[in-house]
Design a protein that fits this description.
The chain is mostly helical and 101 residues long. The chain contains seven helices and no strands. The termini are far apart. The model has no long low-confidence stretch (mean pLDDT 80).
Amino acid sequence: MINNKIIEIRQKNKLSQAEFAKILNVSKDRVGRIERGQHKNIDLNLLLTLAENFDINIHWLITGQEPEPDQTEVIELRTEVRILREMLQLPSLKKKKRNIH
């Protein structure tokens, strides 16, 4: 499973195995073994390097699932949405909105 994610990352970034290996600071042969599922022990350093260089979430890389949003994040987003809705109800914003057309 992780090998398919690594292939996906490499192909999405249009990199050859050699280019990908250079970024990860591993051999091209190791990349090939990982992609074929023949390299069972992928170390944490490699996962961190992937995450840092390709903006990849390690949880997604390992499990294939997007992580659940942090509850604090959800509360903050709801608060922001509520504030924006309240702002849109202000008379001055309604007036400006009509004048745009």
